[in-house]
Write a structure and sequence with these properties.
The protein is of the alpha/beta class. It folds into 2 domains: 144 residues, 3-Layer(bba) Sandwich (Glucose Oxidase, domain 1); 218 residues, Rossmann fold, CATH 3.40.50. The chain is built from 9 helices and 21 strands. The N and C termini lie far apart (64 Å). 50% of the residues are buried.
Amino acid sequence: MQSAYLVLEDGTIFEGESFGAKGEVVAEVVFNTSMSGYQEIITDPSYYGQMVAMTYPLIGNYGINEQDFESLKPHVSGFIVKEYSKTYSNYRANISLGDYLEKHGIIGITGIDTRKLVRHIRLQGSMNGIISTQTDNTDELQKKVAESDGIEGRDLVQHVSCTQPYQWKQGTWNIDKNDFNYTGKYEYHIVAVDYGIKQNILRYFVDCGVKITVVPAKTSFDEIAKLKPDGVFLSNGPGDPEPLHYAHKLAKELVDNNYPVFGICLGNQILSIALGGSTYKLKFGHHGGNQPVKDITTDKVEITAQNHCFAVDVESLKGQIEITHLNLNDKTVEGIKLKNKPVFAVQYHPENGPGPHDAKYLFTRFLDMVQSAQHA
């Protein structure tokens, strides 16, 4: 393996070995606490503009398969692991993690102390970093990082959204059939606005008997209305929600026209801003599959998967919304709903796979809301 360096913007240096592609990349460094699911993580469009460090020490041992992607290609800028396994064993796998990253031009670094890196980010906060296989001049690398932009104030959605509408027909993977579920029977038509949507969200909707039409992020309200949906879904996506003015406008028009609306992650933040609220950047974000969240409406606690760097400032929405979910680690808002309209959103990912399925009920809750709106 070739030597590689990870240099953070505060001058912290990690030396390791490269796997995947060779080259140099600058991005914000975040960490993910999931014990498995690296394939889903690297193909999650919400990570566009970020490089991910995995806290689990051994990565790559079950390879990459064609069924578990969250999008058509990887979106992480770089991948950081303690120990990369060249050898993989999985009856569904058809390529190694390293070869997959190399194929798509993604740089990986292995052999560094990820515990030290994660602790540093926890204490100092997320920051930009650079991975390089091209030079060992760390002063030069730090200078490049210092001159780079962060994710705040940038519209990253434009890089991951689809360009044309399409209909999604694939359900979740059925291990007994060795194929994806698909009923072909539709009870409702939902339009999903793609801000960087994960495919497993679409699969869950299909499992629920939904005709799902995916539209680009900048689709107008009038264009969505012409599709005559029973409800509208605002998807997850990367980066800062504040600069997405087109998304705020659409969300407000949907609410004002009484469409049932369900948002996840970035969709939750977009909806909150549309209602007059604001967001703020978390110190190091929530990334992983072990976040405890309390559903205030039922008084139950669920273990959730999360991937976001920004949170909703609940004080900015006082009197307009009802808080439905709270993060038990840091008390940040994890879910909201409007009091007199069929509109709600959550900050976490109920569709996570692999991971906890505690929050799968939210898809049924949304469709119950759609049904109630039809009979109102």
